Amino acid sequence: MPLADLPDSDLVDAMAAGDVYAMEVLYDRYNRAVFSFAYRILGDREVAEEILQEVFLRAWRSARKFSEGRGAFITWLLSITHNMAIDDIRRQNRRPRKAESADPVLMLTNVRDENPSVEEQAVLGNTRDIIRDALKTLPEAQRTAIELAYFKGLTQREIAEALDEPLGTIKTRMRLAIRKLREHLESQGLELP
Amino acid sequence: MNEDMINNPRPSGEASANCAFCQDNLEAYALDALEPVDRARMARHLEWCGPCRRALAEIRNFTDLLGLAVEQVSPSPSAKTRLFERLAEETSEPDEQVVTFGNPWATSIPLPEPRPAAAPTPEPAWRAWLGTALIAPLAIALIVVGAWANSLRNDVAELEAQQESMALAMNQGARQNQLQLYSMEPACPECDDSPATGHLGGNPDDNVGILVAWNLDPSQGHQVWCENRDGELLLVSDLDVEQSGEVIQALNFPDAIGGYSTIYVTRHDGTEEMRVALNESSANDDPIEDATPIGS
Question: ipTM score of the complex?
């Protein structure tokens, strides 16, 4: 079977054994997901491309560790991406450029993808649609709380100050939002690649 | 409270309170939206609490996917080229195998066995330097006093002065012996195979210490926290970790080092990477680490 047809788990095993071509297939599969996420957080293409490289280099170096732990490769990649991007924001003490002027509510709901590849669409298309649909089911206030925390790196206290709301209200919104999301995604039978 | 939590082996009344705090904050922790102090408190609890750790993992299965919801845009084509050039540089060390399968990278990239995450790197030279640096003041003091004693050996009156100076030097030496080197250990060897290790040097009666550590992940921010005997966590400093994963940094603690029960090195997400327990009376159940006086 060609490497490009293998599931993520087999490709990660191959990568752990030093197979650069397996790494290339994984890169082709997920580079847009990683880059888009980093770009969404940082609002800077150049820095987002640096993060993209670091994420895949880290995946290469830690492939054996991941292989032992198992789990979905894409969630691992996105988790690394989030850590690195938010870390960059906090280290530089700056906020994403694009996010400053954008409407938080529209960031996650009215999105239009550019040129998805056939393979990426096949692997992630359905998952992405389910997550976007789940986000649309949230009340605007809850979605905004998640947006400000996860994509802008704000703490609950900072969100409360930014929105001029009590801290307890923000905590409740965040908790309810994640629980609703989880219920929705579980009811949709979300399957990770 | 679920059955797992009721059966939690932690033999402390503190456990349920921590579980309650943890359950209330799991979502915020997964979104990285907690204040640093609360994040560290959560991380400390998650380190030993299996049920809460599993609950967090389930939530993260969903929160980590939120990144997929954003508008999809493509990186520049050169990003891929640069990545594989860097990979080639990283893997082009001598006496390592070259991949043999038929793919575009096979002819140009020598491939090593992938580097295990926990592979220890050689200890840096400054580790030895630390010991030398701490011993040096005592050694210099003794040499100076010795030379002085030699020049005055025929003068009885001055010999008395010399003896007095010797006593003073010895006293200083005793103070120097208060400098201690604490070994930092992985916070959770069972749940985290981080290769990070290091030492904290300092006088327990003083609030200044030196942290030396290596094999830290340079892609993550790190902080040093201390916990006092009331269980209060205080941020000491951010750490400037080199790209090599090494750090040597002077730390100013709010109070004397010996007054703290535990000192932690945490990652940016609040999870602990290393710790040293300083006092047996700590709420922490971990054994006390060696506190070896320098020069003894």
Answer: 0.83
